[in-house]
């Protein structure tokens, strides 16, 4: 009888502590994203395909709707990690923060907006924007800075060659265009594709293709958090890299199906269209490493727009240690 009890109890004695140990290893990460967009598909893939769980992480995602609010959440410890444009880390550093915000993993490597025309244009030329009314994005934000940078690349002065409207809130730009404001508008997906499907507008160019590679959205944390939670940052980066590889290997249809629960009000076919468009123009980073050329391009774009407070050395606000480690492995 005693031997029988021992045979039953012994496996439980071994298994239960191991199970408890595994549960204790799960670390909670509070992640704040600047907006909720198909543009961030690899992040949602990491969640849907269990890559964070594989690394022992429980990621709590909150959408903070705007760069200022996202950075406030990060700086006040409302978030451990923020997904936002790298320009925000430069703004914070320039204000004399004692705890710098460090970019440690890149998610997107191009601008995510498209130029939409009210009228259908078969052979679009950038000089067709001259003397038009252009509904741009918020002043000082990355979309607007990229927009102005691209216009200047095509010898268009946004201050004198067209009527630039940029006093409309981000959330209201699509409705403003739909109601008749502007000949052209700079829009994110899926709005651009929705407008094209409805006949409200027509996509004629990609700002992401025109502006080149730039650390458009990256994962960043306070320097103090990274020093105290290096292993967490490494695991988080590893999960993102797994998702980036998965996105590269899978079809747009498979990616759309994976992230569809994040966009319940968006048709699966439309999600697939948007994913395909971003894949084709190389918007999704293939690895989490933010390189020097991308950092320099970011600051050149900010400088051209008159929004660069001061030029910051790459090593000051970029840490690629975790990204390089997971890629090497």
Full CATH superfamily name of the largest domain: Periplasmic binding protein-like II
Count the helices. How many? 16
CATH class of the largest domain: Alpha Beta
Q: Using the 3D structure, state the CATH architecture of the largest domain.
A: 3-Layer(aba) Sandwich
Shape: globular
Unreliable segments of 5+ consecutive residues: 1-16, 18-23
What is the domain total for the residues? 2
Pfam family, one: NMT1_2
Family: Belongs to the bacterial solute-binding protein SsuA/TauA family.
Signal peptide: 1-20
Keywords: Signal
Question: If you had to describe this structure to a student in words, what would you say it looks like?
Answer:
47% of the residues lie in helices and 16% in strands. The chain has 2 domains: 26-110 and 214-328, D-Maltodextrin-Binding Protein, domain 2 (3-Layer(aba) Sandwich); 113-211, D-Maltodextrin-Binding Protein, domain 2, CATH 3.40.190. Strand 6 (133-135), helix 6 (142-153) and strand 7 (163-165) form a beta-alpha-beta unit. The strands form 2 sheets. It has a 5-stranded mixed beta sheet with strand order 2-1-3-10-4, sandwiched between helices. Helix 12 packs across helix 13 (268-280). It is α/β, with parallel strands linked by helices. It is globular. It starts with a helix and ends with a helix. Keywords: Signal.
Question: Strands, helices and their partners?
Answer:
Layout: H1 2-25, E1 27-33, H2 41-48, H3 51-54, E2 57-63, H4 67-75, E3 81-84, H5 87-94, E4 101-108, E5 113-117, E6 133-135, H6 142-153, E7 163-165, H7 173-178, E8 184-188, H8 191-198, E9 202-206, H9 207-211, E10 217-222, H10 223-228, H11 230-249, H12 252-259, H13 268-280, H14 292-304, H15 314-317, H16 321-328
Parallel strand pairs: 1-2, 1-3, 6-7, 6-8
Antiparallel strand pairs: 3-10, 4-10, 5-8, 5-9
Signal peptide: 1-20
Organism: Metabacillus litoralis
Protein name: ABC transporter substrate-binding protein
